[in-house]
Amino acid sequence: MTTTADDRSAQLAEAGLDGQNKTALGRVLGTGSIGYAEERPDGTMTATVRIPEDELCWEPGTLILPHGGDLELTLINDDKNTHCAVLPNNGDPKIIWLVNHAKGTASINLDGPGTYYYGSTTGNDEGRGLTGAIVIGGEVPDHAKLDRPPQPRP
Ligand SMILES: [Cu+2]
């Protein structure tokens, strides 16, 4: 059996995993969309993530970067609650405060391929609620590869 995107949306709705105060507090990580950062001519990147109303998630839920480096991340809070984002950043995590209907920009540097998680720790979603992922592709140096058979490369 194959599952199409439409099936998945219907299944998430039926399971009560597509919004706030249903089966779970909000959307579960991995049930949102995938987005890509844009690369500028100088190699720095930009992306926008937003918090839709009453879903308690980031949109896109997974943001893919073509490589490590500097990211200018715009965050928009369209929810009725205040949220924040505690963002991964080389050196020190950064926090940005997002009152309802606020927009802000964070400059972060992530120089290594990998999967980074960020979240809001406020706005009735403490714990692991409102979690998003930033995935950095690119070549992994040999010394950092997992010990497993060679994987196909795009
Ligand atoms: Cu929050």
Automatic annotation (TrEMBL):
Taxonomy, superkingdom: Bacteria
A matching Pfam family: MSMEG_3727_PQQ-assoc
SUPFAM superfamilies (UniProt xref): Cupredoxins
Signal peptide range in chain numbering: none
Name of the featured protein: Multicopper oxidase
